[in-house]
Amino acid sequence: MRVVLQRVARAEVRVAGQAVGAIGRGYLLLVGFKGGDSEEDLRWMVEKVRGLRLFPDSDGKMNLPIDEIGGEFLVVSQFTLYADVRKGRRPSFVDAAEPAEAERLYERFVDLLRSSTIPVATGSFGALMEVDFINDGPVTLILERD
């Protein structure tokens, strides 16, 4: 499982020009799944993103987790996180989970995130999505659970 986490001031995802998910301050999570990802992997990632202290405290130090600033999550599926471009010029996606499995993992990941008090918005799995966001500082992390 891979997640690209972007700290944002706001973010929106659209399908066919229509907004399907939007948040204010929080994390934009681009999530990809590989074959063999498990419930344990999902739970680990949920706890990791909930607990990261990436928001500034009164001294400007990254010290506050998302729940302490009233933040939100926007979760967008992104199978291309498992693109392999080591050979040739066209990406290979052999490590990415099959679509049905990836959708099940995505829905479960979202359900686990929603089990807290932090609001969660989503994109539409498998759709051609446009994602628009405004960074909240230069905070982008790549999280992986092998």
Would you kindly provide a brief summary of this structure?
With 146 residues, this protein is α/β, with parallel strands linked by helices.
Helix content: 10-25%
CATH homologous superfamily heading: D-tyrosyl-tRNA(Tyr) deacylase
**Largest sheet, described in full?**
6 strands, mixed
Q: Span between N and C termini? A: 7 Å
Large-scale geometry: globular
Top-tier CATH class: Alpha Beta
Characterize the quaternary organization of these chains. Answer: single chain
Low-confidence stretches: none
Q: Determine the mean pLDDT.
A: 96
What CATH architecture do you see? 3-Layer(bba) Sandwich
Defining key terms:
146 residues; two-stranded antiparallel ribbon
What is the secondary structure topology, with strand pairs?
Layout: E1 2-15, E2 18-23, E3 26-32, H1 39-51, E4 53-56, E5 62-65, E6 72-77, H2 99-114, E7 120-122, E8 129-144
Parallel strand pairs: 3-6, 6-7
Antiparallel strand pairs: 1-2, 1-3, 1-8, 4-5
Helix pairs in contact: 1-2
